[in-house]
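Two proteins, back to back. First:
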Amino acid sequence: MTFGIIGNKNKAGIDKVIISLVKYFKRMNISYYLHDDFKQVIESKEINLKYLQLSPLLNKSDMIVSIGGDGTFLNSTRMIKHSNKPVIGINLGTLGFMSDIMPTEIKKFFGEVIKKKYKIIELHLAKCTVNGKYAFDALNDIVIDKADTIKMVELGIFYNKEFVGRFFADGVLISTPTGSTGYSLSAGGPIITPFSKVFIITPICPHSLNFRPVIVPDSGKITVKSYNDVKVRITPDGYRGLIRKAPLEIIIEKSEHSIESVKKHNWSFFNTLNEKLLWGEDIRKGKR
């Protein structure tokens, strides 16, 4: 098995983690390649590091190792595009919801991966089309909001051409199950298990008391229309997006592509909720 190592070269301590990982791979006679972006931040006189540019690295790797945080994991999914290579997330960030392998767990985890003791979680992507032209795919969410103004946008939502609602708001976000624990959660959306085949439509600060998050099957198409003259920003996974002016028709549907996330063999979504988001934590503890 060959591992391709990519990640956020600006993360503090990433050089030490990579050197530790490469030393382990060499000791275990495991093949690897480093993204050549790391040449700028990693120096080692002890070992001869093997670098490749991104495209050949993807071609020659069986699995991709993303080192950073959850933001790095999202960026890594853009980098690997549609290569269909499973991704392992090593956490150097804060939350570590998607990148959930800690540096201290590297040896044990990769030892189990080599023995094929791991779990694969298929994460579906959302595909976004703007005025009839393909724009991008997103793993977490696609945010449609106002750009460069304090004015609200007027949006209309349709599902399979059936009218859902029309409202003024700061925007709306369309989330996948993976993204349900991100921006959508902060905006009042529900938590959805990653195995669910749905999208979440979550308004952002709607000037209305009667439009709340809606869950729809991902087998259909969500259409968002912008009516007033406010510029609209369309952003995938918090990354650089598009700014357009009305009239706009944005269609979001399930992508034909997905991401395979490699987890510990005993991984549990609800255990992760408990550990990372304190799901079900009794706030009365210690107050009696």
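And the second protein:
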Amino acid sequence: MDVCGNGEDALAAVAATPFDALLLDIMLPGRDGLGVLSQLRERGNKIPVLLLSARGEVNERVAGLNTGADDYLPKPFVIAELVARVRALVRRGGETKSTVLRLADLALDTVTHEARRGETKIELTVREYRLLEFLLRNPNRICGRMSIIEKVWDYDFDPGTNLVDVYVRRLREKIDDGFEAKLLHTVRGIGYVLKEAA
């Protein structure tokens, strides 16, 4: 078991080591636990996370779970319950760990960052990879421009920019051009959706 005293150290440790689970205190110094969790999920890291906090308010639990936590335990807690919850998380994580995201004949390996459409290898830039990963983690769900900006770019910028549209167009050229079945669709005025056409 490794122990980190602040959020930045926790992010570095998780990036360097394939842990089975993460106990994350919301009240970490520096970057807080929710910030660490948000960053991990934006990077596509699916490590099982159990949030710990001295504050047990419902809205905070909801915020933690919505950010991507797998479970939440308010302090004070009994060690036996903590151990049981961690064991349950590790079991679930072992059952669901898949490093390859798929839709139809499109596949994205989140370890090697290799994308394929059928037998065709697709070369992606870092930003195109993050965009495709985000869309593949939300198949059949319309993704608005602002949610794409938040998850793929990690910062706020002028919502009037057409940057998202430019990257979606580039990605569409790579994953759809030359293939009969089109997967990346525009929902006019709302956003984009990755799905098999009906």
